[in-house]
Amino acid sequence: MPIFNSPFFEIDKKETKRYAGLRNSDFNEEIVDEACELARLIINPTGIWDIYDYNDNTQQINTSPPFILQGESIKKHLTGCEKVILLSSTVGTEIENKITDLFKEGKYSLSLMLDAAATTAVEQSADLMEKAINEQVSRKGYNMKWRFSPGYGDWPIEQQPEMLKAAQGEKIGITLTESLMLEPRKSITAIIGLYKKEENCPEGKPKHNCEQCNKTDCIARQNTCK
């Protein structure tokens, strides 16, 4: 199972404001700049992933032991896929400690924005993982669907323990709380479906489509979505 260490990258300021729920609001841009630069210096982006055979009729991933997915949303999303990628990604604990420290110091705006920048960072790190993975699977004749995580649609969050184990997130320091929250908080687990290019959409992999997601109150929902 490959370990992925992301190169340093610039934190996307527009995405940071979106995750902070401020995309349509005026906000001190100096604080946004400071938070994004601070996040870039603190994060430790690390990921892990592997490819498994998948049966889209039984929703079984051939991990050991087998992992059977639950829910119609994930079933529909992976229709036509014969393999899946399970991945975990985190940006570490140091940035969470910094967010807490800033809040205790009364620097609430910077703490809020740093939290959003950390969320942006873990998503960007996962995007970089996808790009690297896509280069490999494309040579084997596969396209990739957009990543899907426990809690999306009707895929129950109660499957997060199985997901974390199957994606071997513990190897990069990710654990679960009793309430099924990932720790470090700025971590994700996700599944990506693989399908043969000649069978579906040979032009390239589909992107995430907010219009197909039922989380209409999500602050990260794209502007183009209704």
Keywords:
226 residues, alpha+beta, NADH Oxidase, two-stranded antiparallel sheet, 34% helix, elongated
Q: Determine and state the CATH class.
A: Alpha Beta
- Share in β-strands: 15-25%
Shape descriptor reads elongated
> What is the number of beta strands?
9
Instruction: Return residue spans where pLDDT drops below 50 for at least 5 consecutive residues.
Output: 199-209
Percentage of residues assigned to helices: 25-40%
How is this structure best described in words?
- This protein has 226 residues and is an alpha+beta fold.
- It has a single domain (3-201), classed as NADH Oxidase.
- 34% of the residues lie in helices and 19% in strands.
- It has helices at 13-19, 29-42, 72-77, 94-104, 108-139, 160-166; strands at residues 3-5, 46-55, 60-61, 67-68, 83-90, 142-144, 175-176, 182-183, 187-196.
- Strands 1, 2, 3, 4, 5, 6 and 9 form a 7-stranded antiparallel β-sheet that branches. Strands 7-8 form a two-stranded antiparallel ribbon.
- The termini are far apart.
- 37% of the residues are buried.
